């Protein structure tokens, strides 16, 4: 069996240099045989070449990654077998992994950079989860960071060698060959219980802690001690490791690293939003995130992390103005083809909202709707809560996060008594409004820009309805750099 030699050809590629090694193989910088392009070539370790399980896992990496096309995921370009050695050709990233960045900053990265890296990694991980897959080995070494021309970081998640379909239940304790790195492994990966996307949320929380402080969450003398800490010890406080970090990061890490998956953020993106809020250290945010009231911390933290329209609360109150006249009676929604089947039991008292917008919202809270809308939570008035088991209030809503292209968040707010909601807006900068008419009905749409979670300007778009079957609800969308972007890229094709 031939090996890989620097300066020689392998599978037609000219091998330039070795970039690094991992549990499954070695990665080389190579030149493409026909195109003026550099690739990264991963070759399965020779000690695993005859192992059918490892060969199958290696091929699975290519199959999984090839289906995922996202700016924050490394792209797989080709694969093959060269004299019995399996290889994958991947996008070459001219930069370093986050573990190397930490080695050069032993006391942790600048908080803004750490949060920025985690935010981009979260977008890639959420794309993996939307595809029904799990990464299972989220750690700094699997997060590549390339400096762009403007000095900003471009972040890509790599190494899907142990990725699994979301319905597979292999854990560290199951003996199935899973090789998640222990320093970042979720408790359920250790104790053999069921694993879902929230294990990646836990690992991303561990990664954020490492980036902020320069230390892994549980530095211990033995693997057994590390496992015990993940299973039993409270999450470490970043502010105790570095006193210049805002204390609000303590609650972010505590929630991300909760022992019970149900107590964690519902997505990696939600964790990233909470980290951005902690970084901003806004007085309002600090009041919400810095509490030591553990009994109520979870609800308040989710509210702060997920309700991104922080500085436009006036908009919500305006949206909920009621008609002083008689209450309108709802009529059945118009019949539309191929409406998704809504799981009313899972939505509970909020099912009427989802049924009203069945083509927009996910059929269940843990599935995905139009353009990847997911990680949905209920709203009681203006507050986000954690469970759809909570009773709905006279003013209720559903809040979902988007894929960021361009929608970052969307909320549907409804009056439970079916009284109409009338158009109104409170933008920092108004950009447009218009009457709209579609086959589904008619209404009014406003758009503009406003300050959101990290004091940046984001686009806002507000939609209202004329017909009694929907005029008791409004839809607010956040994303893009302006309302004009949302109007052009999202509103024109939204299923409303």
Topology:
Blueprint: E1 9-10, E2 13-21, E3 25-31, E4 38-44, H1 52-67, E5 76-82, E6 85-91, E7 96-97, H2 98-104, H3 111-130, E8 133-134, E9 143-147, E10 153-157, E11 164-165, H4 187-191, H5 198-213, H6 223-232, H7 238-241, H8 248-256, H9 268-280, H10 283-289, H11 294-306, H12 313-319, H13 344-347, H14 351-356, E12 374-380, E13 383-384, E14 395-401, E15 407-415, E16 429-438, E17 441-451, E18 457-465, E19 473-479, H15 483-491
Can you give a write-up of this model?
- This protein is α+β, with helices and mostly antiparallel strands and 496 residues long.
- The chain folds into 3 domains: 9-91, Phosphorylase Kinase, domain 1 (2-Layer Sandwich); 96-306, Orthogonal Bundle (Transferase(Phosphotransferase), domain 1); 311-491, no CATH class.
- 29% of the residues lie in helices and 24% in strands.
- The protein has 15 helices and 19 strands.
- An 8-stranded antiparallel beta sheet has the order 13-12-14-15-19-18-17-16.
- A hairpin with a 6-residue loop joins strand 3 and strand 4.
- Helix 3 runs antiparallel to helix 5 and helix 3 packs antiparallel against helix 9.
- The protein is globular, with a radius of gyration of 24 Å.
- Keywords: ATP-binding, Kinase, Nucleotide-binding, Serine/threonine-protein kinase, Transferase.
């Amino acid at each position: 069996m031939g090996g890989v030699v620097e300066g020689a050809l392998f599978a037609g590629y000219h091998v330039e240099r070795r970039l690094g090694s991992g549990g499954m193989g070695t990665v080389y910088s190579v030149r493409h045989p026909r195109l003026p392009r550099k690739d990264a070539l991963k070759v399965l370790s020779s000690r695993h070449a005859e192992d059918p399980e490892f060969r199958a896992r290696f091929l699975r990496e290519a199959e999984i990654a090839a289906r995922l096309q996202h700016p924050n995921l490394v792209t797989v370009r080709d694969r093959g077998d060269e004299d019995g050695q399996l290889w994958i050709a991947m996008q070459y990233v001219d930069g370093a992994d986050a573990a190397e960045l930490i080695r050069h900053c032993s006391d942790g990265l600048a908080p803004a950079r750490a949060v920025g890296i985690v935010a981009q990694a979260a977008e890639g991980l959420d794309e993996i989860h939307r595809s029904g897959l799990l990464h299972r080995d989220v750690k700094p070494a699997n997060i590549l960071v390339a400096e762009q021309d403007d000095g900003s970081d471009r972040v890509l998640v790599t190494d899907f060698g142990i990725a699994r379909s979301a319905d597979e239940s292999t854990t560290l304790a199951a003996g199935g060959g899973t090789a998640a790195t222990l320093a970042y492994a979720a408790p359920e990966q250790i104790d053999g219980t069921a694993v879902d996307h929230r294990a990646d949320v836990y690992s991303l929380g561990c990664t954020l802690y490492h980036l902020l402080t320069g230390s892994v969450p549980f530095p211990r003398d033995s693997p057994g001690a590390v496992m015990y800490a993940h299973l039993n010890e409270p999450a470490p406080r970043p502010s105790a490791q570095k006193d210049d970090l805002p204390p609000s990061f303590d609650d972010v890490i505590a929630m991300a690293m909760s022992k019970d998956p149900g107590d964690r953020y519902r997505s990696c993106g939600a964790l990233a939003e909470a980290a951005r809020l902690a970084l901003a250290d806004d007085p309002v945010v600090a009041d919400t995130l810095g509490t030591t009231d553990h009994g109520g911390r979870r609800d308040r933290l989710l509210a702060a992390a997920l309700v991104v329209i922080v500085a436009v609360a006036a908009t919500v109150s305006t949206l909920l103005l009621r008609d002083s006249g008689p209450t309108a009676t709802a009529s059945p929604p118009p019949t539309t083809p191929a409406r998704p089947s809504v799981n009313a039991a899972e939505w509970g008292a909020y099912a009427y909202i989802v049924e009203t917008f069945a083509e927009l919202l996910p059929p269940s809270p843990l599935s995905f709707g139009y353009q990847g809308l997911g990680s949905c939570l209920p709203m009681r008035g203006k507050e986000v809560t954690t469970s759809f088991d909570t009773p709905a209030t006279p003013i209720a809503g559903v809040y979902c996060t988007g894929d960021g292209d361009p929608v970052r968040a969307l909320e549907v707010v409804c009056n439970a008594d079916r009284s109409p909601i009338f158009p109104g807006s409170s933008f920092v900068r108004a950009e447009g409004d218009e009457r709209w008419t579609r086959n589904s009905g008619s209404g009014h749409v406003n758009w503009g820009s406003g300050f959101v979670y990290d004091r940046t300007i984001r686009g806002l778009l507000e939609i209202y309805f004329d017909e009694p079957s929907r005029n008791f609800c409004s839809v607010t969308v956040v994303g893009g750099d302006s309302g004009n972007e949302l109007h052009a890229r999202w509103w024109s094709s939204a299923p409303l």
